[in-house]
Amino acid sequence: MTTSIRWTSNPTEPRSGQKVHASQVARPRIRTESPLWSPRRSDLGRIVREPTAQPPHVATVATPVGYEELDLINDADGKTLWCYMRPHVRPSFTPSLLRELIEVRRMLQGAAYSTARAQAMPRYFVGGSRLPRIYNLGGDLTYFAQKIRAQDYAGLRRYAHDCVNVGYHMWTGFDLPIVTIALVQGDALGGGFEGALSFNVIVAEKSAKFGLPEILFNLFPGMGAY
Q1: How far apart are CA 80 and CA 9, in angstroms?
Q2: Of the candidates 63, 67, 57, which has an alpha carbon nearest to the alpha carbon of residue 82?
Q3: How distant is the alpha carbon of residue 70 from its chain centre?
Q4: Beta bridge partners of 60
Q5: Cβ contact 13:55 at 8 Å
Q6: How many whole angstroms separate alpha carbon 167 and alpha carbon 173?
Q7: How many CB atoms lie within 10 A of CB 87?
Q8: Mind listing the pLDDT tens digit for each residue in 122-157?
Q9: Which of 41, 82, 43 shows the shortest CA–CA distance to 59?
Q10: What is the DSSP letter of 107?
Q11: Which residues pair with 73 in a beta bridge?
Q12: Are 71 and 60 in contact (CB under 8 A)?
């Protein structure tokens, strides 16, 4: 059974000079439709989508206090929570970024069981990136090296558990009636690719790149989402 999602608004603007199309991986199968895109048949006979209008005004809320590596935008009319990664140090899943993603999950779950806030719960969660041409480059290799040199096995184990925590709750929609959507507008490598795979739907720009470069330094890719 196919379920349709109609987006009534979109706070992102497509990058100028690029043709954007939506490719997706869905569990269950979901078809995304947006009034901001019109179908066009390319020279290869494939349907692609191009922008037809500027996005309408979106009611937003400021990023809550305590989030330093995430931008949260609440589209109340579209029942969508937009979450953009903006790691300060490295364009990867740093320990601090993972902790903030876990805190977003706790915030949503707390709101779902609050009588006063349940009506304002989002139906869709969109995960994107503020970094130009980079979605996420995966595991924090600098952090790995520091912990290995210090023989801090507990720290490495805690990092692994946080990665699985985030991936699992993206896959299950935070154990709530929420559809998670990865908006990939750049390179998604290693754990960044795995992170995108853990969402219910993947929407990727034509210029987006996916890969598992771990094999270049003798690691097996895949710990959670993969």
Answers
A1: 9
A2: 63
A3: 11
A4: none
A5: yes
A6: 10
A7: 22
A8: 999 999 999 999 999 999 989 999 999 999 999 999
A9: 82
A10: H
A11: 82
A12: no
| Count of helix runs (H) and strand runs (E) in the chain | 4, 12
The runs of H, that is alpha helices, within 40-114 are: 95-112
The model carries a pTM of 0.69
At which residue do the structure tokens 């989508």 appear?
49
For residue range 91-103, list pLDDT tens digits in order: 999 999 999 999 9
Across the chain, mean pLDDT equals: 76
Cβ–Cβ < 8 Å for 175, 156: no
Tokens representing 215 are 């094999």
Backbone angles phi, psi at 132, to 5 degrees: -60, 130
Name the amino acid, one letter, at 153. Answer: Y
If you write DSSP's letter for every residue of 122-189 in order, what string do you get? Answer: -SEEEEEESSTEEEE--B-HHHHHHHHHTT-HHHHHHHHHHHHHHHHHHHTGGGSS-EEEEEE-EEEE
What's the pLDDT band for 222 if we cut at 50, 70, 90?
low
Reference 195, options 174, 173, 224; nearest CA is 224
Has residue 49 got a pLDDT over 60?
no
